[in-house]
What we know:
The chain has 15 helices and 13 strands. It has helices at residues 14-28, 43-47, 65-77, 92-101, 117-123, 135-143, 169-175, 197-210, 225-234, 250-253, 271-278, 291-294, 309-320, 323-340, 343-375, and strands at residues 2-6, 32-37, 52-55, 81-84, 105-109, 129-132, 151-153, 183-188, 214-219, 241-245, 259-262, 283-286, 301-304. Strand 11 (259-262), helix 11 and strand 12 form a beta-alpha-beta unit.
Amino acid sequence: MKVLHVEGGRHYYGGARQVVYLLEGLAQRGVENLLVCPPGAAIAEHAAPFAEVLPTRLRGDLDVGFVARLHARIRTARPDLVHLHSRRGSDVWGGIAARLAGVPSVLSRRVDNRERAWAVALKYRLFDRVIAISDGIRDVLLAEGVSPQRRRCVRSALDARPWLQPVDRAAFRREFGLDDDAIVIGVVAQLIRRKGHRHLFDALKALHPERPRLRVLLFGQGPLRGDLEARAARDGLASIVRFVGFRDDLPRWMAGLDVLAHPADREGLGIALLQAQAAGVPVVASRAGGMPEAVEDGVTGLLVAPGDVPALADALRRLADDPALRESMGAAARARVLERFSVDAMVEGNLAVYREALCARAASQRTAQRTYQRTK
């Protein structure tokens, strides 16, 4: 089987990591992979051992010319199937390019935001199958009217091995300038609005005076950094909130956190939640999107309603004050991630969808051929 994958993101965030996990697993199973991505995209280096990388210009939702560029790639490569992994620009234009080339296509949907009804009606008929990465996203597709025949759920996965390493706590505290008695809350997310950093800051305004040992490390980059830094200064939080940027060595440090906070308004599943739990760190997250699938409330962490600042503060307070609870939840979290979110299961799930789509397309073509012959 030959599969042409399309990933439009330029950074090596969670979605791109999922693509590389998939490419590696498919290659191990004898699938020939090709990857279309923007020139200079970070995924190219990571994908190169498992796929032929085809740098192709992609400028987003308005780049109609991507249809022709991708169509040319498909016609040259002659894949059995096209798998579209990202939304911006590559989903609709990718679906049209695959349709024009007569090749079955599969779309992975990683976000849980609602789309306009007219867009849903036009867009999803382009794809032979739509893969939701969580039950939460599958439910959104159901509510939007996407046919049950087309939608499938294959959960995102985690290669847990890098996250299982123990942390050198003395080195961790030196690296981030922390006192020995600090209770450390981490956030691993792009600095964008839907990740909910503002809710955490509101909760910290109540927590900081009563829990002076709390410290917060914000891992990630994004357009809101300046605004968040200004807000931290304005709210008297600059002394406890540290902006540490995007870290390639995050697996080395994750287990040093006492709690991971993820107060996002929306989230398809939340790979950072799985990473933290694999490292034995309990999570406080929102009860939205696929996050309740990633975190078992009361067992591996605590869930609160999106935007409920008092509940968020209470959850953080509860874990900050109870080291034994943090330890027990962290142990349960690691065991659950290892059991339920394996890369092998994700790869096999995607491969099953490929086979199903190819078989359905072949059956449809046979039916069309028989109908044509009868009408001659």
